[in-house]
Amino acid sequence: MDKTSSRSGPRYALAGCVMAVVLAAGLLSNGYGLLVERLPLTRHAPDWPGFLDGRVTAEIADTLAKTPLPSGSASLERGASWLAVGDLGPRVRQGCPDWLFLADELEPHAGGDEALRARAREVADLRTRLAARGIELLVATVPDKSRIAAGQRCGVYRPAALERRLREWNGLLQASGVRTVDLELALRKLRVPGFLRTDTHWNEAGAEAAAGAIAAAARSLPSAAETLQPHQAFAITRGQPQPLAGDLIRLAGIDWLPTPLLPALDLEPRTAFAPVTDTAAPASEDDLFGDADLPRVALIGTSYSRNSNFVPFLEAALQTRVVNFARDGGEFAGAAQAYFKSEEFRDTPPRLIVWEIPERSLQRPLDGETAIWKAAAAR
Where, by residue number, does the polypeptide cross the bilayer (predicted)? Predict the structure, then answer.
């Protein structure tokens, strides 16, 4: 179904104009490169064998790629495709009007079930090793946006085989003694989907719901009284909604277009957090050694932990500070591999580690992710 049909007339006309400009600019660019900059059309003298094996045409294509226009032609093509037929390229899918989804979430992987089980075994091994050092582990897996916002997918297809992925993952972890947080349940309790329309990540409502679920699980730990220290309260101020152009607009390559031609931008409140001075005197044996003010909760994860005020919401829900070691693009284990090798972990180990993992990374092909502790120990 064409989601742009209500404005198809102006869009088709504009797309046609853009393509005409691209073609004309391409001719001028190629002429400029060949006649003014005197770029050689081929590196070697053309001959018949070269035409037959494709060498000559490859050299011509390489030369034309060095002319001024090609660097921007891809962006022009992406914009024209979006305006004409609502196409957003290979990485982004458009669902209901103004709802965008990451194609990576929708892709089954060969050998995905075994990769998921191997990752579950690695997490269970890490839990055992951390427990031996007196460190608790909480695993919070972020459900796919396309799972939670299923009602906004419209014609976007999500393979049925992916529906059991999150349930199987949490089941394997729980059977191995790993404590998990059910973020799917927390997000489904919201009146509206807890994800941004034009972005991969959760919105502030989703981040706050996830933080509350993690905090509830942390407070139920036997060691919670000692772990969730030092106490820190926060004053929360809800800001006015402001427009936000999501990362899926950039990933689709159309972020250069005027705002009226883009999917409707998200409106986010930009909540502000301010620490509240705690006048109560701390009572802990750690005071004797000067460690009372050190945070005891560490967070490892991905860009979900770096967006929509997730960490401030988590700190406010836990009423203690959290040290954030999450990494953009960390997928399953990027942050974990870096953190367990770090001086911070070696010199000031936490009492609790919250490990945020995106569901979409669970079945990806393995890439050195099942030797996390071994690599850390070898440092």
Answer: 12-35
From 346, 147, 321, 108, select the one nearest 233 (Cα to Cα).
Answer: 321
Question: Do 186 and 217 form a contact (C-beta atoms < 8 A)?
Answer: no
pLDDT bucket at 288, cuts 50 / 70 / 90:
very low
Nearest of 109, 142, 137 to residue 123 by alpha carbon: 137
Annotated catalytic, 199?
Answer: yes
End-to-end Cα distance, the chain: 54
| Nearest CA-CA partner of 26 in 37, 18, 14 | 18
Residues 337-358: pLDDT tens digits?
Answer: 999 999 999 999 999 999 999 9
DSSP E strands in the chain: the ranges are: 92-94, 100-102, 136-142, 179-181, 233-237, 242-244, 266-268, 272-276, 297-300, 322-324, 352-358
Token pair of 200 as six digits: 């991969």
Question: In this predicted model, what pLDDT tens digit does every residue of 142-173 receive, in sequence order?
Answer: 999 999 999 999 999 999 999 999 999 999 99
> Which pLDDT value is given to residue 281?
47
Q: Of 272, 293, 354, 279, nearest to 318 (Cα)?
A: 354
Whether pTM > 0.85 for this model: the answer is no
Per annotation, catalytic residue among 81, 146, 303, 305: 303
Q: Which residues pair with 356 in a beta bridge?
A: 140
286 assigned to active site: no
Residues 6+ apart with CB under 8 A from 365: 109, 110, 111, 115
Could you report the per-residue pLDDT of 173-197, keeping only the tens digit for each? Answer: 999 999 999 999 999 999 999 999 9
Spatial distance between the Cα atoms of 170 and 143, rounded to a whole number of angstroms: 11
**Residue 5 known to be catalytic:** no
Instruction: Compute the CA torsion angle 228, 183, 211, 112 (nearest 10 deg).
Output: 80
Q: Supply φ then ψ for residue 82, to 5 degrees.
A: -65, -45
List, in sequence order, every residue forming a beta bridge with 271; answer none if it has no partner: none
Q: Which of 81, 146, 201, 308 is catalytic?
A: 201
Maximum separation of any 2 CA atoms in the chain, in Å: 88
**How far from chain centre, in Å, is Cα 41?**
43
Q: Which of 87, 144, 199, 247 is catalytic?
A: 199
